[in-house]
Design goal:
mainly beta; 2 domains; 13-stranded mixed sheet; 9 helices; about 35% strand
């Protein structure tokens, strides 16, 4: 469904004539481009004279909790054209937008309009003798001219105001339960998970993170979910199946133990890594980033958390949960915050899904329950996989899935490759004369083809660029051998054993020696 102009400002009335025949439109476009590049004295319309709302779908009437794309199109006026003043489209944005009644909905952070069926992304509404006389400054590669409006759960009339370079306009959006459905219905629903027999499950539940997940213009790609959210184990159809896949919330977990510490690994899976500027490698099918919480075994059933490290785009960020933790190879980024006493707070970026603790990289203020940009969902562990109702939902429950059972048993050269789950197999070669992986060849990535091929990684394929470049930690070593990795990244208090009492991912998990106190 194509987007059409809905409302415009009245500061500069446009020419009344609308709708050129295709040949005439092409002729006007050619004339405008010729004038612009021949330097025949035409003035570029740097001043915004008018702004116009365009919505996709074109009818700004939606159901509660559904969303609509709202785009701002800017116009200027070229006054010295041979045929008289010409109304021209400008690339300007983002506009300042706000809802007159914030209780009626939410606005995402701005993004570059991605187009819709019937309207290419570069097309601008035109009338009369308009021509796209864009200056180089107008051709902003970072132009962000749209937001996603999501209606709240009640009917009413939402009024959205926009201001761009002093020009204002308003759009009325009707929230009506009888409006046509916009969202695609999910075709997969997962029942309760089998009762866990994992002895480490209570520990994983006790420390299950509080997740502040940013959302953007594809919120279903931002919701945390499971790899088989579309009902199959193929990785190369997750991008196209995401709109109808399940948004039930899951977090994958693993627990590894030494004589002195537990290492709790949490993975957050998304069907798409997306952006409004998908250059090569910037977007890809499947996405899986996460964190490691280091807990000191102090004789109590749940121990004492001392440090947390998170992964964002092949970079590890380190945080301390105890004042006696100091930096080593990594500097400390800040202090871990906890929800309800034991659940570390992490922020997951919208679109790219990098994971951060509190501090300068985070887009969420925990004490205020506030996302710094646009919308976001907060998740808490409930043992039940709930669905977010909308891109600004709160306290959505998630369930835990054991990585060993769901992923690791498919990670060798066998079923995981055959059914299209994994790819990019490699031989794990750790530094420091550390134990080898249990399989001689393990999957380095989830199988995916859209935009970037095989780019998302399970935790045994993760790496930190800095430590890998300096040959401190090899690919996969950060999470496969966390006792060694965390003790290199940080200086932990007390003795740190490198000898595992439980690590089913390594061939010889008991290899190692005690680090000095």
């Amino acid at each position: 469904m194509s987007a059409v102009p809905m409302l415009r400002s009245t500061s500069e009335p446009p020419p009344s004539k609308r709708g050129l025949e295709p040949l005439r439109r092409v002729a006007v476009l050619a004339l405008g481009v010729a004038i612009a590049f021949a330097g025949l004295g035409a003035q570029t319309p740097d001043q915004v004279r008018e702004i116009e709302f365009v919505t996709d779908p074109m009818n700004p009437r939606i159901r509660p909790y559904e969303s609509i794309v709202v785009r701002i199109v800017a116009y200027g006026l070229a006054t010295d054209q041979p045929a008289g003043p010409v109304r021209v489209g400008l690339r300007r944005g983002p506009a300042a937008m706000h809802l007159r009644d914030a209780s009626l909905g939410w606005l995402s952070k701005p993004f570059r309009f991605q187009g819709s069926p019937g309207r290419p992304v570069r097309e601008r509404p035109q009338s009369g003798f308009e021509a796209p006389l864009f200056t180089m400054a107008d051709r902003q590669s970072r132009l962000q001219d749209a937001v996603l409006f999501t209606a709240a759960g009640k009917e009413g009339v939402a009024v959205l105001s926009a201001t761009l370079e002093g020009v204002t306009a308003s759009l009325t959006i009707r929230v009506d339960s009888d409006a046509p459905r916009v969202m695609q219905e999910e075709r997969v629903t997962f029942g309760p998970e089998p009762r866990s027999t994992d002895p480490y499950r209570p520990l994983a539940e006790h420390y299950a993170p509080f997740i502040a997940q940013g959302t953007w213009y594809q919120p279903k790609s931002d919701y945390i979910t499971r790899f088989d959210m579309d009902g199959d184990w193929r990785g190369d159809n997750n991008w196209v199946n995401a709109p109808q896949g399940s948004t039930q919330a899951y977090v994958y977990y693993a627990v590894i133990e030494t004589h002195t510490h537990w290492f709790l690994i949490y993975n957050f899976f998304h069907p798409r890594d997306y952006s409004d500027k998908c250059v090569v490698g910037a977007c890809h099918e499947n996405d899986n980033e996460g964190m490691i919480l280091t807990v000191e075994r102090d004789g109590t059933p749940t121990g004492r958390p001392v440090a947390m490290e998170t992964l964002a785009h092949n970079k590890v960020y380190s945080y301390r949960a105890s004042s006696d933790v100091t930096g080593n190879f990594h500097d400390l980024e800040g202090e871990v915050q906890f929800f309800d006493g034991s659940h570390p707070v992490v922020f997951v970026h919208a679109g790219g899904h990098g994971v951060y603790g509190p501090g300068r990289h985070s887009g969420y203020v925990f004490p205020d329950d506030r996302f710094l940009e646009g919308t976001g969902v907060t998740y808490v562990y409930k043992g039940v996989a709930e669905r977010p109702r909308h891109p600004a939902d709160r306290m959505v429950g998630y369930d835990l899935l054991p990585i060993y059972d769901h992923w690791w048993l498919l990670a060798h050269e066998g079923q995981g490759r055959q059914q299209g789950t994994f790819s990019s197999y490699y031989s794990y070669r750790p530094y420091g004369d550390r134990p080898a992986a249990r399989y001689p060849s393990i999957a380095g990535a989830f199988h995916g083809r859209m935009h970037g091929e095989d780019m998302a990684k399970p935790f045994w394929g993760w790496h930190d660029n800095e430590t890998r470049d300096k040959k401190v930690l090899a690919t996969g070593q950060w999470a496969l051998d966390p006792a060694y990795a965390v003790s290199r990244n940080l200086t932990l208090p007390g003795p740190v054993s490198l000898r595992y009492t439980f690590n089913p991912y390594l061939l010889d998990p008991e290899s190692g020696s005690a680090a000095p106190e």
